[in-house]
Design a protein that fits this description.
The chain has three domains: 9-46, no CATH class; 48-77; 86-132, no CATH class. The chain is 48% helix and 12% strand. It has helices at residues 14-24, 40-45, 50-77, 105-114, 118-126; strands at residues 86-93, 96-103. It is elongated and about 90 Å long.
Length: 134
């Protein structure tokens, strides 16, 4: 056996590693989760090059334009007008609300049967089914 002290980074058993960590506060192996990747500090603290800044600015502009175009699309196509001869009305329902759409003869029958409700009666009048109201 040699009289040298064991290397602080190589331990023969788990107990020696724990003892070294307790004495020094450092990990017992040269590789640990606390050690950053080689060159990480330099990469993280290096300013962006002008080309990279332009690229990020272009991506940001494209994203803003895409979001704006999508918002305009939603606002202009959110609800399409009812087709001729069709009745579309939103009414309260057990799960919050319901959108009802009926066309043709079914719309006339719907207005006759359900026309007592103020929302349905207003929708029937807007679409020209006022004569069918009770």
């Amino acid at each position: 056996m040699s009289s040298e002290a064991p290397s602080p980074f190589v331990s023969a058993c788990v107990g020696e590693g724990r003892e070294y960590r307790r004495r020094t506060g450092r990990p017992s192996t040269p590789y640990s989760l606390a050690m950053p990747v080689e060159g990480q500090w330099q990469r993280a603290n290096t300013p962006l090059r002008p080309r990279d800044k332009r690229l990020l600015a272009a991506v940001a502009v494209i994203a803003v334009v895409a979001v704006a175009a999508f918002a305009v699309f939603l606002l202009t196509h959110l609800s399409s007008p009812s087709a001729s001869g069709c009745l579309e009305v939103k009414v309260p329902s057990t799960m919050g609300g319901a959108s009802l759409k009926v066309c043709g003869a079914d719309a006339h029958a719907f207005c006759r049967a359900q026309g007592r409700d103020a929302r349905i009666a207003a929708a029937c009048r807007r679409q020209g089914f006022g004569a069918d109201l009770p």
